[in-house]
Amino acid sequence: MTILVTGAAGFIGSQLCKSLLARGDEVLGIDNLSNYYQVKLKHDRLSDIRDSVGGNDRFNFKKVDFSDDTALDDCLRDHAIDRIVHLGAQAGVRYSIENPRAYAKSNLVGHLNILELARSLKVRHLVYASSSSVYGNNVSLPFAVEDRVDYPVSLYAATKRSDELMSETYSHLYRIPQTGLRFFTVYGPWGRPDMAPWLFTSAILEGRPIKVFNHGDMMRDFTFIDDIIAGVIAALDNPPLDDGQLKAGGSRAPHRLYNIGNNRAERLDDFIAVIENACGREAIRDYQPMQPGDVPATYADISAIQGDLNYSPSTSIQTGIPQFVTWYGKYTDDSLN
Fold it and tell me: 108 has which bridge partners?
């Protein structure tokens, strides 16, 4: 049977596909290859997936927009799918202020289409991506899955919380086993060019200023990609039971919510210093006010996923950032040749 991975050309999706293929799974990846950031990077990730398995037929990729239910059904008609990892979404907090309809289409309609697909296929487990953004300006740190998440400060966060509520409804009505994963600031090789590690690294190496928001008074729970993938796979392999017992996040349906973070909040200035050290030069800091929709701090309480799945992130920024900077240098050099 096949595992469907949406957002397969994305950062987390592409690395998940590689890990699933490495252990012998059959993977069908879908992605609409949107131009939110450079499409070449997405094609390069797909090539990297294929290279990782030597071109064998256990990986199949199809370009499709999962917010189009007809196109999605046509694309998957001939595939036997028993589990889904739904990572595809319109990402980005700040872009949701500029283009809100893209988020309604991809994150709301798209998530509903995946739920309908899971219902019709009677899948064994649907794992989906939520976000630490759902916690909004929660002042209680670290963020725990039991905390209230009723006050999102960006439309992106509102769509992710809406996805969690739709999933709860479908698990309640149709007993679909589901796990929602609230990711905390993921970084690493093949990462997104709109996120801080890429933006800071490219600017530092090119001698350009970096924008440091909220005048540097920010904290983030930076989570290395390998730790994220370990958590996704642990969740995928252990669907919640339909036993009426209380799950992480508060549901008695077969639906649970987990934080996946590094369980450590890093000061932004400390994070920049690690990048400076890896790049071998200092940053030119351009201090800016807080951006609309952003939050001053994120910090994951991972006790729920630790207790249920023995999840234990192990990569510090002192280890992970040099790996990203090394990859970035090689990738950009190769792209120029």
Answer: none
C-alpha 137: how far from its chain's center? 20
The per-residue pLDDT of the chain, averaged, comes to 94
182 closest CA partner among 288, 93, 289, 261: 261
pTM for the predicted model, two decimal places:
0.95
Q: What is the amino acid identity at position 228?
A: I
pLDDT digits (tens, 9 = 90+) for 161-192: 999 999 999 999 999 999 999 999 999 999 99
Q: Is 170 a catalytic residue?
A: no
CA–CA distance from 138 to each of 135, 173, 206, 220 (Å)?
A: 6, 30, 36, 14
Closest among 166, 137, 184 to 251, alpha carbons compared: 166
**18, 51, 133, 180, 233 from 15: Cα distances, Å:** 5, 13, 22, 18, 11
| Catalytic pick among 37, 103, 128, 156 | 156
Q: Is 182 helix (H, G, I), strand (E, B) or coil?
A: strand
Query: What is the tens place of the pLDDT at every residue in 131-147?
Result: 999 999 888 889 999 99
Overall fold of domain 2-186+223-263+299-314 = Rossmann fold (3.40.50)
